[in-house]
Request: fold
Amino acid sequence: MVELKTDTSIDAMYTAGQIVGQALTAVRKAADVGVSLLELDEVAREVLRGAGATSPFLGYRPSFAPVPFPAVICTSVNDAIVHGIPTRYRLRDGDLVSIDCGAELDGWVGDSAISFIVGKPRPADLRLIETAERALAAGIEAAVVGNRIGDIAHAIGTVCRAAGYGIPQGFGGHGIGRRMHEDPSIPNEGRPGRGLPLRHGMAIAIEPMLLAGGKDAYHAAPDGWTLKTNDGSRAAHAEHTVAITETGPRILTER
Ligand code: MG
Ligand code: MG
Reply:
């Protein structure tokens, strides 16, 4: 069931979303060659703590997960696509890092992700990240009253495929509100004009995931959480929480 949010609720989600944006900005600033993923998690924890927010990631345990998620951010490096668990791994020159973060404040949740390079970037990685951001922007642009979910999915998928990248099937965006994952799901590829009509008050997380090798195949790492590309190619992830309103899409996790 898709829950429509009141304008007041969307304002409250915006407040939670700002904390996510601040945490991501702080993590990105702290990320450098030699910094560990656990240290980045600590940076995000500090921001959440300082804002009086809690983490919807910490302790989260969906049915596929062998253990509850132990951190407040996902850190997915190089061939990791999403859901990477922060470890003692220290970032190296040229690493492609995706950070996913959530925050809950006054019962409302925000969810957002960024990808960036640490140290000296390779042109191919910059193109991958730029395309993920462009796919996200296209998805957001399609998130308007009168469109359908398939229009968002089609907009995202078209940008990814035109650039020659793979899309991991079965993972994508989702409704969001009092819980991090609500109905409906927002696929990263689909047919225009299909699916649920978009209405004022819907809140969704839009999150393209792009695989540089052009193949869609992925697998779970031995930790049971991290999704990795099968061909070892790099992946990028970008995400915003967005409210669909009569006056257009409103990004709730803007930075
Ligand atoms: Mg996320
Ligand atoms: Mg999400």
